[in-house]
Write a structure and sequence with these properties.
The chain has 3 helices and 10 strands, in the order ββββαββαβββαβ. It is α+β, with helices and mostly antiparallel strands.
Length: 153
């Protein structure tokens, strides 16, 4: 399964994008929120570089434990974006603001602005839907995510 995250909005501390399922056409799955694009990486404050990455399941750590309790029937592991140069433990998860990202990718159903920064709203339903679409492919290690920048229109 192939996902594409297309970035389209840049804030001082935030980056707005949209993730698409490319397997059966360019099907939008969710809006995304990441940290800002920076020339020099700052831990927990920089979006990941453009590229194509494998996404697998991470079955340890605090996020995994919290999501296991929140979704006992469906959670099989965190969506883990792997092998990003200079980054570790980049996950796809719920959250709404740049403070929630910590270098990860947040998903939501509604893009918004708050005090000049991008946010995403209705994160839990977006996460649940995305997770349901991709978890099997991630478990089989057949899920890729291509990240590409696009300047705002």
């Amino acid at each position: 399964m192939k996902l594409v995250l297309e970035r389209m909005g840049l804030g001082e501390r935030s980056t707005l994008g949209r993730v698409y399922d490319m397997t059966s056409g360019k099907v939008p799955l969710a809006w995304t929120l990441e940290d800002a694009r920076r020339r020099m990486k700052r831990a927990g404050e920089t979006c990941i570089p453009e590229g194509t990455y494998m996404v697998t399941l991470r079955t340890e750590g605090g996020f995994h434990e919290r999501y296991q309790k929140a979704y006992p029937e469906t959670h099989r592991g965190m969506l883990w974006v792997r092998d990003i140069p200079g980054f570790e433990w980049v996950l796809i998860h719920r959250g709404n603001t740049p403070k929630d990202t910590e270098g990860c990718i947040l998903v939501g159903d509604v893009p918004a602005m708050n005090v000049g920064e991008f946010t995403v709203l209705r994160s839990a339903p977006a996460y649940e839907r995305l997770y349901g679409c991709v978890v099997d492919a991630a478990a089989r290690k057949e899920l890729s995510l291509t990240v590409r920048d696009r300047e705002p229109a």
